[in-house]
Design a protein that fits this description.
The longest helix has 21 residues, at 67-87. The protein has helices spanning 14-23, 67-87, 154-174; strands at residues 30-39, 44-46, 49-51, 54-64, 95-98, 108-115, 121-123, 126-138, 146-152, 185-186, 193-194. It is of the alpha+beta class and 197 residues long. The protein has one domain: BirA Bifunctional Protein, domain 2. 26% of the residues lie in helices and 34% in strands. A hairpin with a 2-residue loop joins strand 2 (44-46) and strand 3 (49-51). The strands form three sheets. Strands 1, 4, 5, 6, 7, 8 and 9 form a seven-stranded antiparallel beta sheet that branches. A two-stranded antiparallel ribbon has the order 2-3.
């Protein structure tokens, strides 16, 4: 039986990771990776897939001494994200675009979008799924560091990819293209392959 209690469910972890770096007395620039559950008020079915309140996120947090060092880190992570999406087989479809800093705040932000009919983002005036987001936070969470945070919603990737595949299939069918012998996406993760529908 559940007992009533006040719970703190974290939508994001910038404060916690900053506290950890402070408590560990880290004095040289560092990168902290975290893969964990996050909780957001997002329960809504889209295209037969439920985007739930509990999501799995891969986050990288960077701590640099200067804005110049932080900008260099930010650029390196942008390159790494491109490589990750390319290795997954969706690199040609995912696009990065400048984004609002939202509640997380900071100096600079980009979102990584994959076109799809059920996406809640927008790319070239059409729906798209946000599959990643990068923020250069500056000193928003600590005066001791210039911080960045970078996230990929790992539990959001499969629904986004399936929707993108469906979009391509529908477009091919609309234009009466021969799609029977093409691989729409080839994913390297555990040699998973998403073949034609």
């Amino acid at each position: 039986m559940l007992q009533e209690a006040n719970l703190n469910l974290s939508p994001t972890h910038e404060e916690a990771i900053t506290q950890l770096v402070t408590e560990l007395n880290i004095t040289t620039p560092c990168r902290m990776v975290q893969i964990t559950q996050k909780f957001r008020n997002e329960a809504r079915p889209r295209g037969g897939m439920l985007r739930g309140r509990e999501i799995t996120m891969k986050d990288l947090y960077s701590f640099d001494h200067t804005v110049e060092e932080a900008e260099k880190t930010y650029t390196e992570v942008l390159g790494a994200y491109s490589a990750i999406f390319t290795k997954m087989g969706i690199g040609e479809k995912v696009r990065m675009q400048p984004a609002d800093n939202s509640d997380i705040g900071g100096i600079l932000s980009h979102e990584w979008l994959l076109p799809g009919t059920n996406g809640e983002g927008e790319l070239d005036g059409k729906p798209a799924h946000e599959v990643g987001h990068t923020f250069l936070l500056g000193n928003r969470y600590t005066d001791d560091w210039v911080m960045g945070c970078y996230g990929i919603g790992t539990s959001r990737l499969l629904p986004a990819i399936l929707d993108a595949v469906r979009c391509i299939y529908e477009e091919a069918r609309h234009y009466d293209l021969n799609y029977s012998n093409i691989n729409l996406f080839r994913c390297s993760y555990n040699t998973m392959e998403i073949a034609p529908l």
